[in-house]
Specification:
Blueprint: H1 2-15, E1 18-23, H2 40-52, E2 56-61, H3 63-69, E3 77-79, E4 92-107, H4 117-122, E5 126-130, H5 134-140, E6 146-150, H6 153-161, E7 167-171, H7 172-181, E8 189-204, H8 210-226, H9 228-234
Parallel strand pairs: 1-2, 1-3, 5-6, 5-7
Antiparallel strand pairs: 3-8, 4-7, 4-8
């Protein structure tokens, strides 16, 4: 009887767990070699869930798949899309988490001067970026650019280091993280012109329940106010724009 009661309690807990579709965008969402996902946005959500007495069921997905899956999961949350005019009506923007700068980058050995938008428009520069990312959307708005897409940012860091692409469009903190994960010196990254500055969000499908969204929005606002959100970001060497 006691075992049956424990099983019933476990089932009840799992049934009410909040599903979080976590798109792999290090250092915000990181897939470790072993164990549960980590990253600064994951830790923010885990602390928020603890304060709300909620259980999180985290589904780690490639970035493009997470963006498409959320529209078939009206009861799920999504982490960490960047707000953009293109996406504004496609998602419910629950709460801003992290301010981020999206920039052009080059490898100092091949292109020591900061890459500019004017140079992109006027020269035959092959630029790498993550498929369906904020940078991809932004670059798609300009004509006649040579864009090479990758399914994760680690590939872009590798291609830039090998000279296979001349530029890389990415979020600044992601680029720094991937450079280090590939064993490459940070000093080789040349930060070029900023494409845009925006926030990475906790988001959901447009029909996500408003009352539930308000609970998450409120607790994340409290974390920002009491400094706990900033302390989590600092653990990952986050650089604000």
């Amino acid at each position: 009887m006691r075992l049956l009661l424990l099983l019933c309690l476990l089932h009840s807990s799992l049934a009410h767990a909040v599903t979080l579709l976590a798109a792999e965008v290090p250092p915000f969402v990181i897939r470790p070699q072993q164990g549960a996902p980590t990253g600064m946005a994951i830790e923010v959500m885990e602390e928020a869930a603890r304060r709300l007495h909620e259980s999180l069921s985290i589904e780690l997905l490639p970035f493009p798949r997470a963006l498409s899956q959320i529209h078939h999961r009206p009861d799920a949350l999504l982490l960490p899309p960047a707000w953009s005019p293109v996406r504004a009506e496609r998602l419910s923007w629950v709460a801003p988490l992290i301010e981020e700068s999206f920039v052009l980058l080059t490898d100092r050995r091949y292109h020591p001067e900061p890459l500019t938008l004017k140079e992109l428009d006027q020269q035959n520069v092959l630029i790498g970026t993550l498929r369906d990312s904020f940078s991809h959307e932004w670059l798609n708005g300009r004509r006649d650019l040579r864009i090479e897409l990758a399914h994760d940012e680690q590939l872009n860091a590798q291609k830039l280091a090998r000279g296979r692409i001349q530029g890389w469009a990415a979020s600044w903190n992601t680029a720094r993280y991937q450079q280090q994960q590939n064993g490459l010196p940070l000093e080789r990254l040349v930060r070029g012109e900023e494409l845009a500055r925006t926030h990475l969000y906790l988001a959901a499908a447009p029909d996500f329940p408003t009352a539930l969204a308000a609970r998450w929005q409120q607790v994340i606002a409290q974390m920002r106010q009491d400094g706990s959100l900033a302390r989590i970001l600092a653990q990952y060497d986050y650089q604000a724009p």
